[in-house]
Design brief:
By secondary structure, this protein is mainly beta. Helix content is 0%, strand content 57%. Strands 2, 4, 5, 6, 9, 10 and 11 form a seven-stranded mixed beta sheet that branches. It has a four-stranded antiparallel beta sheet with strand order 1-3-8-7, with no helix packed on it. It is globular and about 45 Å long.
């Protein structure tokens, strides 16, 4: 069974930084794409950032210039650097991994990011 595990959330003051990490395991095929969605209470889930195995990167307009997604050691592990954090960035951040060929998508359990004074 495919597992997706994210880590690195926490409490930070406005203007601070965090680094999230996500790893996918148990795939019989390669990973096509990985990234993060986020969801705050009462809010719609939104795509924050994603990266494909070919290196294509997409960001939400609200985080461009502040967040950076990148591959770690191996294509099944990615990180998200969150800089200049704002209170509106507060949410549960959910990592996803999309398997190549089948295009099945798997989700992590989520990690809480709280930006507050």
């Amino acid at each position: 069974q495919v597992q997706v595990v994210e880590s690195g959330g926490g409490l930070v003051q406005p203007g601070g930084s965090l680094r999230l990490s996500c790893a996918a395991s148990g795939t019989r095929r390669g990973i096509y794409a990985m990234g993060w969605y986020r969801q705050a209470p009462g809010q719609q889930r939104e795509l924050v950032a994603g990266i494909t195995s070919g290196g294509y990167i997409a960001y939400a307009d609200s985080v461009k210039g502040r967040f950076t997604i990148s591959r770690e050691n191996g294509q099944n592990t990615v990180s998200l650097q969150l800089n200049s954090l704002k209170p509106e960035d507060t949410a549960v951040y959910l990592c996803y991994a999309t398997e190549a060929i089948t295009m099945n998508t798997y989700w992590g359990q989520g990690t809480q990011v709280t930006v507050s004074s």
